[in-house]
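TICKET: design request
STATUS: open
ATTACHED STRUCTURE:
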């Protein structure tokens, strides 16, 4: 069985809850205990997230799934690219500062996200491929996860999955906001984990 790290974020700004953590909580309710999965709750802070990634990735996982919430969408977003930009302050030329001065401009996905999007859609879960995870902490988490794994020669393949707000987070809004129940987002996460297990088993067969 592949070893999988799954991370989510704490609440931030006006959000008393974070849909990523709500999703992870729902996911753990039906977790297949045969799969060695480690879950983590990360603070919404660039420096501390990097510190946590450095510690957690040392666990030598096969996969890392990073979750974040995406207000304004009703679909699961599978992020294909992590950019070397952030935090949000600019340099003297008005450009966003790089996360890693000597790092590549971006990391593309090494996982079959297009295929996995199809798996989610076939299960009746709205899902899209996204090619821009923003320039804030979600993008930074994906980029740094890939960068640190590469620098340390780790086998970890990382991905980022944005989940919509849960309806409980939008109930008090003056106007309706896009949302998706956390249990559906959790089902999407479970399907992604299943695909990772299948991919790992196929790789083991090829090496046998």
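STATUS: resolved
RESOLUTION: sequence designed for all positions
ATTACHED SEQUENCE:
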């Amino acid at each position: 069985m592949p070893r999988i790290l799954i991370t989510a974020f704490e609440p931030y700004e006006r959000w008393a809850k974070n849909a990523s953590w709500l999703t992870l909580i729902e996911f753990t309710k039906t977790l297949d205990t045969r799969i060695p999965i480690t879950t983590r709750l990360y603070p919404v802070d660039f420096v501390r997230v990097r510190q946590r990634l450095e510690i957690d990735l040392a666990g030598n996982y096969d996969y890392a799934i990073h979750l974040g919430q995406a207000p304004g969408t009703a679909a699961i977003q599978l992020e294909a690219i992590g950019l070397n930009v952030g935090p949000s302050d600019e340099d003297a030329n008005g450009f966003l500062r790089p996360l890693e001065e000597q790092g590549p401009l971006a990391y593309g996905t090494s996982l079959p996200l297009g295929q996995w999007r199809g798996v989610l859609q076939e299960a009746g879960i709205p899902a899209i491929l996204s090619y821009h995870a923003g320039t804030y902490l979600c993008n930074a988490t994906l980029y740094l996860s890939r960068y640190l794994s590469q620098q340390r020669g780790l086998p970890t393949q990382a991905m980022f999955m944005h989940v919509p707000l849960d309806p409980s987070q939008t109930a008090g809004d003056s106007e309706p906001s896009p949302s998706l129940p956390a249990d559906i987002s959790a089902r999407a996460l479970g399907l992604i984990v299943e695909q990772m297990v299948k991919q790992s088993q196929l790789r083991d067969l090829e090496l046998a």
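CLOSING REMARK: The CA atoms of residues 160 and 178 lie 20 Å apart. The beta strands are 4-9, 37-42, 63-69, 76-79, 81-83, 106-108, 127-130, 157-163.
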